[in-house]
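ok, trying the design again with the full structure, not the truncated one.
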């Protein structure tokens, strides 16, 4: 599978560990940076991963910052992205099965390398569940299409 990775400085080390792990599993890694622990701003990297996934350059995205939260928020601003912050095997499995997550976000300052690798493998081994989950994911896409504003109506 072709997998895009992006991180800020706080996620750099975990991104490198995950990239190496994915390569060892035979996946093709698309590394969108950052390239060191020099401080950078995470929105650039989260949006780059999101665009790679939605644009078809990658089938799955991985985002890493200190917590996984900021870079995940940024990735989710790209229409079509379903980025989920995961902390372990269970959250990774359910993000994929129930939420059809196409971008996995992790915190380099939160979880260890082995937990992150196990979570990533759990995601890769899990297929999206259908039935009621399809309906809910479609409702999320509907919110995006409608451009829901603070009043719950169409933005324009
Ligand atoms: C960087 O210091 C940190 O704020 C960032 O990596 C991330 O945790 C934000 O959500």
């Amino acid at each position: 599978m072709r997998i895009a990775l992006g991180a800020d400085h706080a996620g750099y080390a975990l991104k490198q560990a995950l990239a190496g792990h994915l390569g060892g599993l035979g996946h093709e890694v698309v590394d969108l940076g950052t390239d060191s622990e020099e401080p950078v701003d995470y929105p650039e990297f989260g949006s780059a991963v999101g665009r790679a996934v939605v644009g078809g350059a990658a089938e799955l995205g991985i985002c890493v910052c200190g917590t996984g939260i900021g870079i995940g928020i940024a990735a989710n601003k790209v229409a079509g992205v379903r980025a989920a912050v995961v902390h372990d095997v269970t959250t990774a499995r359910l993000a994929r099965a129930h939420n059809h997550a196409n971008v996995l976000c992790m915190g380099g300052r939160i979880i260890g390398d082995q937990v992150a690798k196990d979570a990533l493998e759990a995601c890769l081994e899990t297929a999206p569940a259908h039935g009621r989950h399809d309906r809910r994911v479609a409702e999320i896409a509907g919110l995006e299409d409608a451009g829901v504003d603070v009043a719950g109506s169409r933005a324009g």
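Keeping the full-length input from now on. The pocket of D-ribose is lined by residues 8, 10, 42, 65-67, 69-70 (CB under 6 Å).
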